[in-house]
Write a structure and sequence with these properties.
- There is one protein chain.
- The protein is built from 15 helices and 17 strands.
- It is α/β, with parallel strands linked by helices and 439 residues long.
- Strands 3-1-4-5-6-7-8 form a 7-stranded mixed β-sheet, sandwiched between helices. It has a 6-stranded parallel β-sheet with strand order 10-13-14-15-16-17.
C-alpha cells in the first residue's frame, strides 16, 4: 500500500525564544516510515511546516491508501483539517492520527474524518493496522488503537509493552531534500537522536512521564552508537526526555562513541540536579562534542519550585550554572512564567537572570497541557472552541489560556518584554557561537 505520513503546520510552529527558532526533523514519522517499509509498503513524508501549500498536490499525485498524521496539542485543529481534506479528495483513503495528544485525549479526534487513533508508541500498532487494512480487515481490534465503527469509536485495548530495542532506525532518507532546512537556532542542519524514553520525575506542568506511565526505558548502547555514526549532520540534538539521569549508562555511551571515533556537536536536555550530581559525566560528553544543554530551571522561588514539584533548590540552580561555565558548556535556560506573576515576579526573574549572567534565557507560559494535574477539567481554561473544548491552537506554551493575576493584556506585555530585555544578550551569544563555529 501507499502510505503518506504528514507533519502538520500550526500558527505557532516556529518556536521563538529571543533569537532562537527551530524546525526539527519529523523523527516520529521517520520511525513509522521505517516500520511500514519493513512490511513492503511505499511511504512518503510530507512536512507541511516546510511545504505548507503542498497538501492537495501530494494527495492527488501520490494517491495514498493511508494517511497518517502526528499531532501535539497545538496541531489538533490542523490535523483534523488535513484529514478532512484527504477524505474530500480521496474518499476511499484511511486516516490515522497519533502522537502525544492522541495518547492523552483521544476524544478530540472522535470525528467523522478520522478512522483510527493510535495511542502510545506507534510503530508496532501502525504496522499491525496496515497489515489488517491490506488484508481488507477494516475494523480490526488492535491494542492501543481506537477504531471508528458505525460512527462511534471502539478501543482495541491497552497498548502493548514498549520494547524500545525492537524499533527500526528512523528512515531519514525520506526527507533527504529537506534535511538542510532542519535547524535549532545556529545549529544548521541538525539531526535528532533518542537514546531513551520517559522520565522518572513528576513535574506538575509536564506530561512526558504520563505518556510513558512513569517508565524510563533505555536503548542498547551499541545501537545508539551505530545510529549516531550513521547520521550525516554535524549537529545532533539528543531528544531524550531526560538524557543524563542514568549517569553510569551515559558515561558508557560517551566512552563507546569515543572508542568508535564518533564526534558530533551535541545539544541535550539536562536537569539542574543531574548536572550538580554528576559533573564528571557531563565533562565526558563535553570531550566528545557536547556544546550546549537545555536546562529546565523553570522557577526561581521556593514557592514555585514546590508548586512545580521540581525537587531542587535555588542553590543547586546557581551551582549548575557555575559548573557548566567551568566546563565551557553553554546553557539554554528555560523558565516557566506562572500565570500568577505580578510585576514584582517579572522583575525578580529579570534580576535573577542578570545576576547569574545567564547566557541564553528562554520562557514559556505555564499552560495546562493534557496529561497534567493542571488540566483535570476545562473549568479554568479561558480560550475555548464553540464546542466547549479548549482552543488547542493556543496551547503552544507561549499563549495565555487561563486567568492571570495581572490583567491579561498587561501580563502579555510583561511576558513579551522578558524577551526584549535580553535582546542584546541573544545577539551577543549568537555572534560568539558563530565565531566559534567558523573557527
Amino acid at each position: 500500500m501507499k502510505i503518506l505520513l504528514i507533519w502538520p503546520n500550526s500558527p505557532a510552529e516556529l518556536m521563538e525564544g529571543g533569537d532562537l527558532e527551530a524546525i526539527s526533523e519529523p523523527i516520529a514519522l521517520e520511525y513509522l516510515a521505517a516500520g511500514a517499509q519493513l512490511d513492503g509498503h511505499q511511504v512518503k513524508i510530507l512536512d507541511l511546516r516546510l511545504h505548507p501549500t503542498d497538501l492537495d498536490m501530494t494527495l492527488n499525485e501520490f494517491a495514498p491508501d493511508v494517511i497518517g498524521v502526528t499531532a501535539y496539542s497545538m496541531h489538533i485543529l490542523s490535523a483534523l483539517k488535513i484529514c478532512l481534506r484527504a477524505k474530500q479528495l480521496l474518499p476511499g483513503c484511511h486516516t490515522v492520527v497519533g502522537g502525544h495528544h492522541a495518547t492523552l485525549l483521544p476524544e478530540d479526534f472522535f470525528e467523522p474524518q478520522i478512522d483510527f487513533i493510535v495511542c502510545g508508541e506507534g510503530v508496532r500498532p501502525f504496522r499491525v493496522l496496515l497489515t489488517s487494512l491490506e488484508n481488507n480487515r477494516e475494523n480490526p481490534a488492535i491494542a492501543g488503537v481506537w477504531t471508528r465503527r458505525d460512527g462511534t469509536f471502539v478501543n482495541g485495548g491497552p497498548p502493548s509493552v514498549f520494547l524500545i530495542d525492537e524499533l527500526p532506525l528512523p528512515d531519514r532518507s525520506l526527507v533527504a531534500a529537506d534535511r538542510q532546512a532542519y535547524f535549532i537556532d545556529w545549529m544548521r542542519p541538525v539531526a535528532l537522536v533518542r537514546t531513551s524514553v520517559g522520565c522518572p520525575y513528576r513535574c506538575t506542568f509536564c506530561s512526558l512521564w504520563k505518556i510513558m506511565e512513569g517508565q524510563y526505558i533505555m536503548r542498547n548502547i551499541d545501537a545508539v552508537v551505530q545510529e549516531i555514526a550513521g547520521v550525516q549532520e554535524e549537529f545532533v540534538f539528543l531528544i531524550d526526555d531526560e538524557a543524563f539521569i542514568n549517569g553510569p549508562r551515559m558515561l558508557k555511551l560517551a566512552q563507546a562513541l569515543k572508542a568508535a571515533g564518533v564526534y558530533k556537536r551535541y545539544f541535550a536536555y539536562c536537569r539542574v540536579d543531574t548536572m550538580v550530581r554528576q559533573p564528571g559525566v557531563l565533562a565526558a560528553w563535553r570531550d566528545i562534542g557536547l556544546e550546549r544543554l537545555f536546562m529546565g530551571v523553570d522557577a526561581i522561588s521556593e514557592k514555585n519550585l514546590l508548586e512545580y514539584n521540581k525537587k531542587i533548590k535555588i542553590a543547586q540552580i546557581e551551582t549548575a550554572f557555575k559548573l557548566a561555565a567551568d566546563m565551557g558548556i553553554k546553557i539554554f535556560a528555560q523558565f516557566v512564567v506562572n500565570t500568577d506573576f505580578t510585576q514584582r515576579e517579572f522583575k525578580q526573574l529579570r534580576h535573577f537572570i542578570e545576576h547569574n549572567r545567564i547566557e541564553y534565557p528562554s520562557f514559556t507560559v505555564l499552560t495546562p497541557i493534557p496529561g497534567t494535574q493542571l488540566l483535570n477539567n476545562f473549568d479554568n481554561v479561558t480560550e475555548l472552541q464553540p464546542n466547549g473544548r479548549p482552543n488547542w491552537d493556543l496551547f503552544d506554551c507561549q499563549n495565555v489560556v487561563v486567568k492571570t493575576s495581572l490583567p491579561k493584556e498587561e501580563f502579555k506585555r510583561e511576558y513579551v518584554n522578558l524577551y526584549h530585555s535580553f535582546a542584546g544578550v541573544y545577539q551577543q551569544f549568537r555572534r560568539g557561537v558563530n565565531r566559534m563555529a567558523v573557527n
